[in-house]
Amino acid sequence: MKRLMLGNEAVARGLYEAGCSFVSSYPGTPSTEITEYAARYGEIYAEWAPNEKVAAEAAFGASLAGRRSFCGMKHVGLNVAADPLFTLTYTGVNGGMVIGVADDAGMHSSQNEQDSRHYAKAAKAPMLEPSDSAEALAFTKAAFELSERFDTPVLLKMCTRVAHSQSLVEEGPREDFTPKAYEKNIAKYVMMPGNAKRRHPVVEQRMRDLAEYAETSPLNRWERGTDSKLGVITSSTSYQYVREVCGDEVSVLKLGMVWPLPDRMIREFCASCERVIVVEELDPFLEEHCAALGLTVEGKNLFPLLGEISQNMVAEALGGKAHRGPAVDAQIPPRPPVMCAGCPHRGLFFTLSKMKVTVIGDIGCYTLGAVAPLSAVDSVLCMGCSVSGTHGFNKASGNERAGKTVAVIGDSTFMHSGITGLVNIAYNDSASTVIIVDNSITGMTGHQQNPTTGMNPKAEPASKIDLEALCRAVGIRRVRVVDPYDLKATEAAVKEELAAAEPSVIIARRPCALLKYVKHGAPLCVDREACKSCKACMRIGCPAISMTDGKALIDATLCTSCGVCAQLCKFGALNGEAK
């Protein structure tokens, strides 16, 4: 049966059909849905790991036990998993192991753009790159076959457009995969220097064998056009744009296996065309490989290094006409991202902004604390950096800044990579204040469970980490919990902990306002007679509050009755009924 599937759903279906039985991932847009869909299959054990390194190592353990395993992450997550990845290619696998990575060209939900194809080359691992949902399913199954045939982990590279677009997929039955027996093999699996030296030649020979396989693999195909003047080398979503613009006129070398590359096929293809253009997003990975082969191709002289490629870019680069579509004459107001109405982070960031505290921030929906009018966050780098960075910031200044600097990190991000930073603070006696914004969920990627929520991805009860006990266990003596809806209590807690000449942790605990089990009171109303038009309530940047005819107005469809705005009004205008 054929049906429409998201690319990520198709990968999950591929995991099911391939007989995969173990999935460990960390949520990260645009990869998250792979694991969410995989968790719906009873035959697959699926978990959220604390971070991508743990996920990759857990998947390796399952592979070592003879099962087919998968771990999924976004591109920056592969940075975290790089440590095991680079040695996994030395050890090889037992059961097939696939590592899914989703790049985010255009930075729709990421702090940087990076091209994960470089990891395949650097780690000496094969990488497959589907261009639609049907290939996402097929390539996932092929990845397991390659993994076991060549004794290697296989990278499956998605991108935002393939991961989050829909196309037709034909479903098949689940393969009756028989787990492989585990056999102790110290020379293969124990990577001490002596063994690693003997495994490195194995890795290099494997890459030569894979390169030879790539020459005749159905994953790479030469689509001959009606005109031999122009040829295009491409992959992934760029292939779809080329076909949409060019139809069957141009010849296309469509690469589904982007590392290692089929050198002979590429040479023959270039020799068959008068002009060859490489169409790829982000880095000139394919283009530079062609240049290294001594071939003359065009690429980044026509296409940008930044962001996503589009059909119009392809059309203009090939001398065609871009189809812009109908234009809207009206000026559309900008809609910058903001924290939701009732977001528990708003009260905390308002307090920190009011106190003019330096805030070293982290990755999560609370990064929006940097947006006006709160403008409370000074720095955001990567997962966990808020804790480690605050320690370095304070130590480097001789703790002179410690009384005016805090780290802010979410509960899920703290579990991901904040704990070790807190250990560093405790161990090195840093007078730093860490604020864990505990909204009881992984909010930014769409409400996934984490080790602090007490639920697993299959909505089953799970062990729940006690954040207070954990912080005390690593050596933090000053640990306290506040409700960020209570502005006075929050400010008092921040003042007291900043004044303390020792490490401290504040847990700002209030569940995300969008969680289904969170019940809200009746929306607040504005007493227009009491309202003095002072706009104090506008300072928190709540999307439910606006000014109309010079008076505050609360949108009853958005208001969650959190009461933060009412605490700012000196005239009691936000507690009455509408008049």
Structure commentary:
The chain has 579 residues and is of the alpha/beta class. Helices cover 35% and strands 16% of the residues. It has 19 helices and 20 strands. The chain has helices spanning 7-17, 32-38, 52-64, 75-91, 117-123, 133-150, 160-163, 186-189, 193-216, 236-246, 263-271, 285-292, 311-317, 344-354, 385-396, 411-427, 467-473, 487-499, 564-568; strands at 2-6, 22-25, 45-48, 69-74, 97-103, 127-128, 154-159, 166-170, 220-223, 230-234, 251-255, 257-259, 275-279, 358-360, 405-410, 433-438, 478-482, 504-509, 545-548, 551-554. The strands form five sheets. It has a seven-stranded mixed sheet with strand order 3-2-4-5-7-6-12, sandwiched between helices. The longest helix is centred in the middle third of the chain and has 24 residues, at 193-216. The model has no long low-confidence stretch (mean pLDDT 94).
